[in-house]
Amino acid sequence: MRRVSVFGATGSVGQNTLDLIAREPGAFQVVALTGGRNVAQLARDAVRLKAEVAVTAFDDMLDPLREALAGSGIEAQAGAAAVAEAAERPADWVMSAIVGAAGLAPGLRALEQGATLALANKETLVCAGALVQATAERSGGRILPVDSEHSAVFQALTGENIEAVDRIVLTASGGAFRDWPLEALANATPEQASNHPNWDMGQRITIDSASMFNKALEVIETREFFGVDPDRIEVVIHPESLIHALVGFSDGAMMAHVGAPDMRHAIGYALNWPERRPLPVKRLDLAAVGAMTFRAPDEVRYPALRLAREVMARGGLSGAVFNAAKEAALDGFLDGRIGFTAMAEVVEEVLGRLDRQSGLIDAAMTLDNVTQTDHLARVCAREVMAERAG
Ligand code: NAD
Ligand code: MG
């Protein structure tokens, strides 16, 4: 039996992961499941899958979690440190599906013990790509991509030489507002932004899809994961979300991953790798699909893509600043402090201000420095938002 842990088990990717695990009784021993405030769900899944330990990220949720697990014999723990410690429990395969920079520390711990890290949490590579790669190299841990685009690229590269790659093309649905008039964007509400045309995902990534911050993070993730030059990474709008990414080779050929927009494609590939096994996903009827369309992303509508290019050019800890400023700006948008289009303006302002703080961006990429930089960027973003509010 393979020992598996799922971080962010109560979320969208986490639930899809548990779905696949539960379909193969006897194949997996579940070690740790972690979640946030939804401890009822966490406890139900821990009992159903016979986990060793269930961990909520929030200290004040320990008692409710304990109550929900009473009599089950499953350990209950709480707090960010407990989440990270759970990643030290011996496991063969660990799903990283916490949302945000909070996913970084547990992912690093899992790699340190030499586990295979199935990485849905794109923030990990955006904030600390070089550190994460070095950790994996040192311990012999392996990282498998779960973001659908990166899984698609990874699959297209099987048996290929990375030297023969000309370009990597990430597709983007364009999000909730792709057809809105530009002038209307400033007044878009969180509720409107939370409505993804094709994918059913957590609220934060869904809003990041509307602003294209999600694709901006994914461009950086692509660079960090595959080690390709930023100008070989392209983004194209593909409203149907059926092609998840393409790889173009030196002979002009392009390999595409085509499938229904269902995260179990990418999760299942990482779970079964290096084998390919049957998955309960919808088979595409291409005649019924009829057409797939593509168009260039509009940089005015999606300034996040330009910011991602600037971050890659700057390097160092600017990815950690970018992500943290984006997370803080998204918090600001969700609670009504700023409008939709202000998110990119806030992030750009924070990138500029922190770049002027001597030594910050160019400090060594250690977990402490990344955490500290993340903190400073959030503080700075809140200041910028307060200034804008007058
Ligand atoms: P979600 O909001 O549905 O779930 C997030 C999970 O993280 C929950 O279990 C929640 O309890 C937990 N969590 C939240 N804050 C936490 C904290 N501070 N500490 C510890 N745990 C915390 O998110 P999701 O849509 O499943 O996305 C998870 C990650 O996967 C994100 O990084 C996202 O970008 C990435 N991703 C998601 C999808 C998708 O289809 N949902 C696709 C590709 C990549
Ligand atoms: Mg993706």
Automatic annotation (TrEMBL):
UniProt-recorded name of the protein: 1-deoxy-D-xylulose 5-phosphate reductoisomerase
Function as written in the Swiss-Prot or TrEMBL entry: Catalyzes the NADPH-dependent rearrangement and reduction of 1-deoxy-D-xylulose-5-phosphate (DXP) to 2-C-methyl-D-erythritol 4-phosphate (MEP).
Entry's EC annotation: 1.1.1.267
Family membership noted in the UniProt record: Belongs to the DXR family.
Keywords: Isoprene biosynthesis, Magnesium, Manganese, Metal-binding, NADP, Oxidoreductase
Residues in DXP reductoisomerase C-terminal domain copies: 259-378
Domain 1-deoxy-D-xylulose 5-phosphate reductoisomerase N-terminal: 4-129
Lineage: Bacteria, Pseudomonadati, Pseudomonadota, Alphaproteobacteria, Rhodobacterales
Keyword Manganese: yes
Any single GO BP term: isopentenyl diphosphate biosynthetic process, methylerythritol 4-phosphate pathway involved in terpenoid biosynthetic process
Residues annotated as binding Mn(2+): 147, 149, 218
Catalytic activity: 2-C-methyl-D-erythritol 4-phosphate + NADP(+) = 1-deoxy-D-xylulose 5-phosphate + NADPH + H(+)
InterPro entries: DXP_reductoisomerase (IPR003821), DXP_reductoisomerase_C (IPR013644), DXP_reductoisomerase_N (IPR013512), DXPR_C (IPR026877), DXPR_C_sf (IPR036169), NAD(P)-bd_dom_sf (IPR036291)
UniProt: 1-deoxy-D-xylulose 5-phosphate binding residues: 122, 148-149, 173, 196, 209, 214-215, 218
Entry-linked PANTHER family: 1-DEOXY-D-XYLULOSE 5-PHOSPHATE REDUCTOISOMERASE (PTHR30525), 1-DEOXY-D-XYLULOSE 5-PHOSPHATE REDUCTOISOMERASE, CHLOROPLASTIC (PTHR30525:SF0)
Functional pathway: Isoprenoid biosynthesis; isopentenyl diphosphate biosynthesis via DXP pathway; isopentenyl diphosphate from 1-deoxy-D-xylulose 5-phosphate: step 1/6
Cofactor(s) recorded in Swiss-Prot or TrEMBL: Mg(2+); Mn(2+)
Residue span(s) of domain 1-deoxy-D-xylulose 5-phosphate reductoisomerase C-terminal: 143-226
HAMAP family named in the record: DXP_reductoisom
Residues that, per the record, bind NADPH: 10-13, 36-38, 121, 123, 202
Lineage: superkingdom: Bacteria
TM annotation in the entry: none
GO molecular function term, any single one: 1-deoxy-D-xylulose-5-phosphate reductoisomerase activity
